[in-house]
Amino acid sequence: MSTDALEQDYVLIVEPNLTGHRWRYVEWTMQACAEAGYPCILATECANEDHRLARQIIAADRRDTEIAFVDPEERPRGLLRDPNEYWRFHRYFKRVYKIVSRAQPIRLVVVPYVDYFFYALPFLGSPFGKTPWIGITMRATFHHHKVGIKAPDRPLVNAIKAQLFKRAVRSAGLRTLLTIDPTLPEWSARSASKSSAAIAYVADPFPDEHAENPVLARERLGLDSEQRYLLVYGAITERKGIYELVEALTRLDNAPTLIVAGEQDAGTRHFMRNHVRGLKPAPVILDAFISNDLERDLFSACDAVWLGYKGHYGMSGVLVQAYRFGKPVIATEDGLIGWFSRRCELGPILSDLSTASIGKAITEVATSWPHAPEAVPSAREDLLSRHTLGQFKQTLLQQMA
């Protein structure tokens, strides 16, 4: 890094929560900044000091990639509470900007998960003063009924959020709102004001990987070469539909072997300890952080991927990875997972999470085991081939330039 680059004003990235997939968005944003020569600083809460990303940044000790730990301000007694979470997070982001910008000039702010405070913008304005900023929204679902995506029908709530969205994208300083939902820019082009910030699609990425030889992958994992494996991957919580899947597998003849890979929350860990004994064959449980190499072997070795999520209406990086490795999915019909799975013909779609529906879907997938390579449908290629880390960084940098 040249001296000139080090003397530039910094890009500030604010993400209080480094759990789940959020830390990866932060990491990829910081990588994009480094590759483009933009010095950057991550601001997060003190509870994340021991997170692997924080330790990595501190250990690297680079002048162009820094980290600041800022906790929310304790409310003095007697002051009114924030009316909702949007207000509380807006106050946190404003506090972070005030503290960091005093120590370091900021040229641009990037918010990898703007849904924290987005609907507070029409009332409170930008938390970053006059500094331009970019946000990524992942949970805007108010428009789904208008574009044919299955989601809860909440006419009043959706109408209110649509109006708040239109006002929020006119907030001072907001340069671009990026979204992992390809239908939101289309809806916005018809509905939002032309004087608003740019609204652009950024494909939800997964690290760029290619499938390994499944025989070799299974050898490394110690898996049976003759068994069929169904993979549940990621942060393992009840919302993954894991409870219903285990129940269905206990009642299914010739069930595939279940692989559950990823850190489990306490409730899921308790459930798994008490319910997986009835599974035949015995499941493979990897209750830990999954490295990139292990992840590649898991997706290479499995026969299908479970995406029967509950109450999740956004996109899924696991869906992208299943596509990239040529694995069929068993997916909920809800939200963007169902929308992508249906349009791209990725596998059986679940109308519900009943034992009968899950059993039928598993049987349908099993009829085509082993899965022979096939020509990729054009719709699938057009929609999912863009979900690369390189494409994500390129889209982000175009907006940051």
Q: How would you sum up this structure, described in words?
A:
This protein has helices at 3-6, 22-36, 52-60, 85-103, 121-124, 155-168, 183-191, 214-221, 242-250, 266-275, 292-301, 317-324, 335-343, 355-366, 378-384, 389-400, and strands spanning 10-14, 40-44, 65-69, 106-111, 133-137, 174-179, 198-201, 229-233, 257-261, 284-286, 304-307, 329-332, 349-350. With 401 residues, it is α/β, with parallel strands linked by helices. The protein has two domains: 3-203 and 387-400, 3-Layer(aba) Sandwich (Rossmann fold); 214-384, Glycogen Phosphorylase B (Rossmann fold), CATH 3.40.50.2000. Helix 9 (242-250) runs parallel beside helix 10. The two termini are 18 Å apart. Residues 1-6 and 375-379 have low confidence and may be disordered. Strand 1 (10-14), helix 2 and strand 2 (40-44) form a beta-alpha-beta unit. It contains 16 helices and 13 strands. It has a seven-stranded parallel beta sheet, with helices on both faces. Keywords: Transferase. It comes from Paraburkholderia lacunae. GO terms for molecular function: transferase activity. This is Group 1 glycosyl transferase.
